[in-house]
Amino acid sequence: MAQNLLKQTYPWIKTPLIIGAPMRLISLAPLAIEVSRAGGIGFIGSGTDTSTLEHILLHAQSLLLSHPIPHSPPTTLPLGIGFINWGASLPLALPLIARFHPAAVWFFAPASLASLASWTAATRAASPATKIWIQIGSVAAALAVTRACAPDVLVVQGTDAGGHGLVRGAGVVSLVPEVADALSALAAEEEGGKAPMLVAAGGIAEARGAAAALALGAGGVVLGTRLLASPEANIADGYRKEVLRARDGGQSTVRTKVYDALRGTTGWGEEYNGRAVVNRSFVDAGEGMGEEENKRLYEAEMEKGDAGWGVEGRMTTYAGAAVGLVKEVKGAADIVEEVREGAVRVLEGLMGEARTKL
Amino acid sequence: MAQNLLKQTYPWIKTPLIIGAPMRLISLAPLAIEVSRAGGIGFIGSGTDTSTLEHILLHAQSLLLSHPIPHSPPTTLPLGIGFINWGASLPLALPLIARFHPAAVWFFAPASLASLASWTAATRAASPATKIWIQIGSVAAALAVTRACAPDVLVVQGTDAGGHGLVRGAGVVSLVPEVADALSALAAEEEGGKAPMLVAAGGIAEARGAAAALALGAGGVVLGTRLLASPEANIADGYRKEVLRARDGGQSTVRTKVYDALRGTTGWGEEYNGRAVVNRSFVDAGEGMGEEENKRLYEAEMEKGDAGWGVEGRMTTYAGAAVGLVKEVKGAADIVEEVREGAVRVLEGLMGEARTKL
């Protein structure tokens, strides 16, 4: 999908395109719809458990029926669905994709490249209007995925992203341009070859980061952590409060496998971990506490409800390195508009400076 | 130093400002001068050993005498000097600063905040025309350093940077905006308070990254890794070749303390490590080889000369996550011009798109 086809494909959007990340269990129908309603593309975070997806999609459909999004096409749902493919069920997902025709599916962390190709082919057959978005975190994966699946959009995730991603990686400042160059070279190898559109994810929470992502060559900008502080996000108050508290995101968050271990999440490949706010469990693990004891304390902490989050708590606060830029709760639609319009102002300001000062 | 004072302070520069990082042992007089000659600011990498600095400055002075930089002021050297403060000698540095009047000093990794304040005060007393640049990698450090030293420029180093920096950190996409906001808030606390200018370092090797850094709020852009592939950089051919070979920078480089240990560099604080290309020593360390054996193999490898670098080699290739964007050897002045002019074109292109498509 060339960038200039974006508005043909998604007629309700405004550019620069702001995308709501498919945060598992957090981005459900209300959040995804608000992002799309504001001219972005919202993604439902279906994650690893496809059994609840029909219910979520029916909810989305009913919300949209009573309050449609202007300019959204009659035949597709103006939303995407995000799958964590190593856990998601293709047999459960496929009939839902065929029935609801989401605007996009977003694939991430497949068990194998072959399985990713199967998901892609099956989705295209079931719903030709549904665009294929695939998330990668390295140049090697960008090339492999493009060869195997010819996705419409590649989500280029930098290592500043919250939640799961590659253990080892680069920030978007290096990764997006290197992926763009590698894909251009790949496209040039084939007659009529066309590189997928890139969207940037990881460490972007406001207008300056969004403007930077566009400068790096992205055709859209993904917000995750920032949307945690919207009332539409399906998260505990304790979690949201911790997102608002954390500052100095490169210091207060860390990439680690500790939280997966405590939560009993065992399906992620060796190459993945997750970025979250440092808490007592992480510090204890670093100081040598055994996993069993740490897990017991984590499970006991769950009894505390919202008080279980925080720097001395043990509940996991998945969040990106941009968490320090998230300072207030704001409606998801307002966030999308603020970031989109702010990014344009940042770029206009720079060009104004350039005209007077260069 | 407000951004609009930049050209008053450094009359030979062109904006957007491109800065050559003070790479220890690598950025000596020839590289620093070429960066400044192209309208940037080049820094000599004096590092931890101040005993060679007089020789380097005399060399710079003689090169500049025979081939002056247009518009450079008669009383200051149109170059900066970078110190790694935990190792550098203030008694040796101070008379040289007083004698040569460098345009800037760049301080990094002091033994303490008090020592940093001493270096700052002594430099200002010895050479009022010399601007104080201080490198930080966190919001906390930005605030502490600004309170203690009121630097003219803060170098905001993201975790994608090559060579030494903080073990835990954020990319410039998150770090630069969060530092900018924190410093604005600090400046607002005091009457007439003025935030230092920010320049961005880490993961930037070409025009798109430079344009992104400006969008993030930086008033200048630091190149390090990219300049390793200039003929003016004082590095072994094997090192330069490895920089050109490495691709997929987030995967081929890693932040680690292994290389310091092998090289016997013991002065860095616990909070620092270095980003370098993955090689045999790193892999062996990860697979459990003892430090003594690994060091013995490293020292034997030194006999091999240029053949000691590479993925199966043991010589250290310090480089940032943008290393995959470095594909050819090019003169330092050409690199500076290409990145500066390219960044403006990137921004103009985005605004052109915005005008037709928004």
Write a structural description.
Chains A, B: GO terms for molecular function: nitronate monooxygenase activity. Chains A, B: It comes from Mytilinidion resinicola. Chains A, B: This is Inosine monophosphate dehydrogenase. Chains A, B: Keywords: Flavoprotein, FMN, Oxidoreductase. Two copies of one chain form a homodimer. The first copy, chain A, is α/β, with parallel strands linked by helices and 358 residues long. Chain A has two domains: 10-235 and 328-353, TIM Barrel (Alpha-Beta Barrel), CATH 3.20.20.70; 244-323, no CATH class. Chain A is built from 15 helices and eleven strands. In chain A, strands 8-6-5-4-3-2-1-9 form an eight-stranded parallel beta sheet. In chain A, strand 3 (77-84), helix 4 (90-100) and strand 4 (102-108) form a beta-alpha-beta unit. In chain A, helix 5 packs across helix 6. The longest helix of chain A has 26 residues, at 332-357. The radius of gyration of chain A is 20 Å and the shape is globular. Chain A starts with 5 loop residues before the first helix and ends with a helix. In chain A, 55% of the residues are buried. The model of chain A has no long low-confidence stretch (mean pLDDT 95). The interface between A and B is large, with 60 and 60 residues.
